[in-house]
Write a structure and sequence with these properties.
Rossmann fold, 8-stranded mixed β-sheet, 18 strands, 363 residues, OB fold (Dihydrolipoamide Acetyltransferase, E2P), alpha/beta
Length: 363
């Protein structure tokens, strides 16, 4: 009998335990290639399309649209060569039993534990794999949180220690307008390095988190080994001020969805749950005022308030930037010299839309 390849429910994010099969984009019996889009999956955080793990014939679709299944559950079988139906049925039964056993035995991932750090009278929440060398701290963008790294942390943790904090007024950390500025966030990161005795770290920063990473490198150069910047603020002058100000004050589902789709080249990545989570966050007491203040530190007169290109040129720095970025234009990096800039086929969220490329570099 020919080779059989399992198509299984992916694990997109540290907290993902199940996903919903929305729709198959290929039919049973179709020839498929490795990397070809197979099936639309929606989680409680994001909607995305699962790509084929191999080439052959999608011989059997096991999971039907609407089914909610755990991570690693069998969705379908790709075959190469002749098929023996009895062996196929046995293969499917064994795969389903193994997935069910794995789901029952799965131990809590340390990266799902919401850890606590005290800083300036605030509670800072963060994720930490705790194990490994060369610590990497992941810094989210304006209005984001530690869960924005859902496609990255689990992939990186086997190779190095990874941490992801929520900045003040974001995620599960204390809301504080007084502590809501890029410079304050840089001081928080520096204190985190000291309190956890991390020594020298690498930083990866997305958007505003990129600006914070640059500020940490400027203020505490001995603490930073290398920077990886993803569509960073703090480089160049162009910024979509309408998005920044709009997000700070948005308080309805429709407003937030219209803003969220600007983050992605693939607009289908914006799920209902993503918008619901943003709305829940925006309605927390004090968040709007803190974000309005923070927005005022990021731009003035429609331009970015600070250009730290010189810092990027003085520290080992790699920049990834989406060609379709609608928030911070890729043209911002035009004036950089001596910095490795890689343009990707994605929007503002390179660590989500081009996770494989970013993870490979960070590993």
């Amino acid at each position: 009998m020919g080779e059989m390849i399992k198509v299984t429910m992916p694990k997109w994010g540290l907290s993902m335990v199940k996903g919903t099969v929305n729709d198959w984009v290929v039919d049973e019996g179709d020839e498929v290639e490795k990397g070809q889009e197979l099936v639309e999956i929606e989680t409680d955080k994001i909607a995305n399309v699962l790509e084929s793990p191999g080439e052959g014939v999608l011989y059997r679709i096991v999971a039907q649209p609407g089914e909610v299944l755990p991570v690693s559950a069998l969705l379908g079988v790709i075959t190469q060569g002749e098929v023996d139906e009895a062996e196929l049925e046995s293969y499917i039964a064994e795969a389903q039993a193994a997935a069910a056993a794995a789901a029952a035995d799965e131990a809590p991932d340390p990266l799902t534990i919401n850890r606590r750090l005290d800083w300036e009278g605030l509670t800072i929440r963060y994720l930490d794999s705790e194990e490994g060398e060369r610590p990497l701290i992941c810094l989210h963008g304006f209005g984001g949180d530690k869960n924005n790294w859902q496609f990255n942390l689990a992939a990186l943790a086997p190779n190095r220690r990874v941490l992801a904090p929520d900045f003040p007024s974001h995620g599960d950390s204390t809301v504080s307008a007084e502590h809501s500025s890029p410079l304050a966030y840089a001081k928080m990161v520096s204190a985190m390095i000291d309190q956890l005795e991390l020594g020298q770290v690498d930083l990866v920063g997305h958007s505003m988190g990129g600006l914070v990473a640059l500020l940490v490198a400027r203020e505490s150069p001995a603490k930073v080994g290398a920077l990886t910047l993803l569509a960073p603020a703090g480089i160049g002058t162009e910024i979509n001020a309408g998005y920044v100000d709009g997000f700070a004050t948005a308080n309805s589902r429709n407003e937030l969805k219209a803003l969220a789709v600007q983050l992605f080249a693939d607009k289908e990545m914006v799920s209902r749950q993503m918008v619901a989570d943003l709305l829940k966050y925006k309605r927390l007491d004090g968040v709007e005022g803190a974000l309005v203040q923070l927005a005022g530190t990021l731009h003035s007169g429609g331009k970015q308030s600070e250009d730290l290109s010189s810092v990027a040129q003085s520290v080992p720095t790699k920049i990834f930037w989406g060609k379709a970025d609608e928030i911070l234009a890729v043209s911002n990096c035009a004036q950089l010299s001596g910095v490795d800039v890689e343009q990707l086929e994605c929007g503002h969220m390179a660590h989500m839309e081009a996770a494989d490329v970013v993870n490979k570099h960070l590993t």
